[in-house]
């Protein structure tokens, strides 16, 4: 018997003008899985990532979260259904503290009316207190407690990336979409990041989709890998299966 997938990508195509960036992509993500999305430059990874985070509308196909289409949701409502994301280039508020940046994450899961009401209504203010407690717990969890009151722009890049993760976690996502999290990190930082992603999955049961060029990271933490090339799905399977797939090897050698 097969459990129904948490997320189902069904025959998704994206056409920009005349360019077919994605051509009939289908795959499933199971709950608690770490899925690595790989492919040479221009393969369509970012385009697919942007469909999942609702920045792009597919020309064809559907994306289902727990059986319901997410395509009717505007991008700013996507956190509410449980999809969180980080950005390739850190996208934090540089002049705000770590604490305030992560608090922004909690609001993306809340109706904006409730947030503004929280300034007036005492019983909702209690909700804010609970939120603050949650934010501090997340900061401690990601070992950011000691920099909670530090302005983000003064922190090392690796730490800023962790703040972004904290902000995404604050919205209590079911699925975390990570856009090239290893970009700009040194070898040791990538290793720490890999452990952290696995820990988040293990401790919180969060499902992770990882778009990544750093093959070492993908191969060491992904349970399942989907390889794209020229907008099509080239292969999928365990990291070992995909790494040894002749079409994948050819695509990577051919692109370099
Ligand atoms: P990289 O690893 O270099 O980031 P990628 O796998 O993320 O590549 P995409 O950025 O998704 O690939 O690009 C897939 C194809 O779609 C490419 O041919 C690209 O030129 C094209 N493309 C992507 N975004 C747009 C856009 N906004 N308008 C037109 N064409 C686009």
From TrEMBL:
This is ABC transporter related. It comes from Rhodopseudomonas palustris (strain HaA2). PROSITE patterns: ABC_TRANSPORTER_2 (PS50893). Keywords: ATP-binding, Nucleotide-binding, Transport. Coiled coil: none annotated. GO terms for molecular function: ATP binding; ATP hydrolysis activity. SMART domains: AAA. Residues 7-255 form the ABC transporter domain. GO terms for cellular component: plasma membrane. It holds the Pfam family ABC_tran. It comes from the Bacteria. InterPro entries: AAA+_ATPase, ABC_AA/LPS_Transport, ABC_transporter-like_ATP-bd, BCA_ABC_TP_C, P-loop_NTPase. Involved in beta-(1-->2)glucan export. Transmembrane domains (TMD) form a pore in the inner membrane and the ATP-binding domain (NBD) is responsible for energy generation.
């Amino acid at each position: 018997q097969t459990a129904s997938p948490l997320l189902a990508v069904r025959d998704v195509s994206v056409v920009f003008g005349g360019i077919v960036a994605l051509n009939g992509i289908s795959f499933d993500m199971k709950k608690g899985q770490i899925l690595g999305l790989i492919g040479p430059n221009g393969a369509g990874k970012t385009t697919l990532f942007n469909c999942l985070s609702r920045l792009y509308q597919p020309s064809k196909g559907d994306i289902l979260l727990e059986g319901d289409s997410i395509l009717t949701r505007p991008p700013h409502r996507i956190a509410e259904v449980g999809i969180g994301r980080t950005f390739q280039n850190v996208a934090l508020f540089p002049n705000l503290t770590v604490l305030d940046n992560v608090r922004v994450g909690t609001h993306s899961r809340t109706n904006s009316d409730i947030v503004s009401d929280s300034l007036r209504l005492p019983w909702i203010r209690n909700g804010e207190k609970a939120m603050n407690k949650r934010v501090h717990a997340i900061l401690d969890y990601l070992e950011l407690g000691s920099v909670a009151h530090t302005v983000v722009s003064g922190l090392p890049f690796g730490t800023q990336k962790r703040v972004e993760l904290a902000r995404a976690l604050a919205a209590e996502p079911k699925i975390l979409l990570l856009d090239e999290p290893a970009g700009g990190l040194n070898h040791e930082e990538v290793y720490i990041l890999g452990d952290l992603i696995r820990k988040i999955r293990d401790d919180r049961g969060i499902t992770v989709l990882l778009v990544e060029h750093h093959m070492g990271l993908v191969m060491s933490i992904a349970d399942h890998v989907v390889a794209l090339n020229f907008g099509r799905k080239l292969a999928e399977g365990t990291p070992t299966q995909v790494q040894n797939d002749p079409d994948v090897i050819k695509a990577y050698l051919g692109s370099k």
